[in-house]
Amino acid sequence: MDFEKTLMELKKGKADPSPCYLLYGDEEYLAKDTLNKIIAAIIPASDRDMNLFFMDGEMEDVDSLCETILTPPLIPGRKVVVLTNTRLFQTRIALSEIVQKIRQHFENDPDMAVRYFLQFLKITGWNIDDLRDGGWKKITSDNWRKTVEGDSGHDRETWLPEMIETCISRGMDVGEQRGGAERLEDTLRKGIPAGIHLIITAETVDKRKRLFKTISETGIVLNFSRLKGEARQKNALMDTAKDLLAQSGKKLTPGAWIAMGRKTGFDLADSMKALETLITYTGDKISIEESDVEEVIGKTKEDTFFDLTGALVARKLDVALSNLKDLFDQGIHHVLILSMIAREIRFLLHAKMFIISGKLGSIEPNMDYEKFQRSVYPVILQWRGDKGGKGTLDGQHPYVIYNAVKNSYRFSHERLLKYLEDLVDMDIAFKTTTKEPKFLLERFIVKVCT
Question: Which residues partner with 202 through β-bridges?
Fold first, then answer.
C-alpha cells in the first residue's frame, strides 16, 4: 500500500488502525518519519508514556515480544508495540548485501559494521569461537561463494579478522534464533487483541518468508526503497519537505533546489537536515535563495566534482587541475573521479546528438534557461520518445540537460567520441599498469582544456 494513502486514511479516520504494520527498505528517513506519523495517528501523546513500547531488533527476544503484544494496555486506550530493525525477515539471499554494508562501514563506522557482522553470523550460522585465532582462514573461497551467493569474498582478509577481534574485545556473540519468526507468525495468525498494534521496521526482507506473507495478509506492508534517478529523488524530497516548509512559511527558489541537490544528492536525511538549518538561518525571510544554500551548506565532494566538470567543459585548465587536486586531497578514489568525468562527457555527447538530429530547430548556444524550458525541452522529450529508447540524459533535471546542450557547442562530435575512447583506455591503465592515476587524469584534463 502507498504510505501517503495509509497516513491520510488514519488521520481522517477513514480506516481503523491495522493490527500490524511492516515498514521496510533502505530509505531510512522516510520510513522513520512514517513510523512516527503512524504512532501519532494511533495513540495520543498523553498515553505514550504508559502504552507505547519500543523493542530493539538488534537484541530481539521473540518470546518477550509476543508476551508484550498479548498483554492488555496499562491504561485504557490503544497500545502500540514497535520492533525496530528486526532481522526476522532475513535469509541467505541478503548475505551479499550485508557483506557490502560491512565493507562500507568497517573503517569509518565500526559500531555500524559490528551490527551488520552480527547479522551475518546469525544468518550463516558461523560463530565467533570457530572463527577466532585464525579459524576464519579455514573458510575456502569455494565455501564462501556457496554461503554468500553473489560475493567472491576476495577481500575478506582485510575486514573479517578485524570484525572478529572487535566482537571478541566487546564481548559480543550471537545466539540462535530458535524459530522466532515462526512463533511471531503463529501469534499473528491467532490474532492480536483488539486495541493493540504491532509496528515492525526492517532494512531488508525476504518476501518468500512465511512471516512476510502473514503480515501481508493480516496487516499492512509499506516499502521505502531508495529511489533511482535525480528527478524522482527531487520529487520525493519536495513532497517530504512540503509540511516543514508550510509550517515555517517558507519556500525554496528553483535555483535553491538545484543547489540543494548538488550539496546533498537529494538524499532525504541529509536534505531535511540541511533544510532545517536553512529555515533557522534565513529567519524572517520567506524565500530561501540559492545563495543561502551556498552560504549555509558546506562544500562537499559533490561540489568539488561539480567544480571539476564545470571547469573541464569550460576549458579552464588551472581551475580544473586545482579541483582535481582537491578531490585527491579529500581521499576520493581515482576510479570515482574517472567515472564522474566520463558521465559529464556522455552528457555532452548525448546533447550533441540532439543538436545533430536537427529536431531542435534554431537553438542558440547562449539561449537562456527559461526559453530552453519553453521551446526546446519539450522537443527533446518528444524526440526521445520517438526514438523509443533511453539515453544518458534520461531522468535528468531539465537544467542539467540545458547545460549539457549549451556546453556541447564547445566540442565536436568526433572529439567527444575520442574523449570517451581516452577514458576507456585510462580505465584499463588503472587496472593493468602501475602508472600514477593522478598523472593520467591530469594529462586527460590538459588535453581537453587545450
Answer: 24
9: Cα separation from own chain's centroid: 28
Structural domain count, the chain? 4
- Radius of gyration for the alpha carbons in the chain, expressed in angstroms and rounded: 26
- In this structure, are 13 and 29 located in the same domain? yes
Backbone angles phi, psi at 223, to 5 degrees: -100, 130
CB atoms within 10 A of CB 75: 11
Centre a 10 Å sphere on the Cβ of residue 440 and count the other Cβ atoms it contains. Answer: 19
Same domain? 309 vs 381:
yes
* Domain ranges, residue 374: 302-449
Q: Which pairs from 237-243 meet CB under 8 Å and 24+ separation?
A: 237/266, 237/268, 237/271, 237/272, 239/4, 240/29, 240/30, 240/33, 240/268, 240/272, 241/271, 241/272, 241/275
- DSSP for 155-196, please give it: THHHHHHHHHHHHHHTT------TTHHHHHHHHHHH-PPTTE
CATH number of domain containing 21 = 3.40.50.300
90 with 205: CB under 8 angstroms? yes
Amino acid at residue number 34: T
Question: Which of 117, 112, 74, 84 has the alpha carbon at shortest distance from 98?
Answer: 117
Give the angle 379-380-381 at the CA atoms, nearest 5°.
90
Spatial CB neighbours of 398, under 8 Å, sequence gap ≥ 6: 372, 373, 377
Q: What is the mean pLDDT of each run of 10 residues along the chain (450 residues)?
A: 75 80 89 90 91 82 88 91 85 78 82 83 82 88 86 86 86 55 88 93 85 92 83 84 89 89 82 88 89 78 77 90 85 86 90 80 71 79 58 70 86 92 91 87 92
What H or E segment, with its residue span, contains residue 287? Answer: strand 287-288
